[in-house]
Design brief:
68 residues; mainly alpha; 2 helices; elongated
């Protein structure tokens, strides 16, 4: 597996985790847990944005990574 494919796989996993955290935040009845899930989801959004930038850099620098 290439570096580009690994980074994109990691990005997909993080998006899945973000969706799971969102679901937990919405379904939780405990306000503290709800807040923690929401805060963690926001942190994961920041990491996802950074990884998306890195994917763009990889695609510009290494043509073979484009379109994975």
């Amino acid at each position: 597996m290439t570096v580009g494919a690994q980074v994109k796989q990691c990005l997909a996993s993080l998006k899945s985790i973000e969706a799971g955290l969102s679901t937990l935040a919405l379904k939780s009845k405990d306000e503290e847990a709800k807040r923690l899930f929401h805060e963690t989801m926001i942190m994961s959004e920041e990491v996802i944005l950074d990884l998306k930038k890195r994917v763009g850099e990889l695609e510009r620098e290494e043509y073979q990574y484009k379109g994975f």
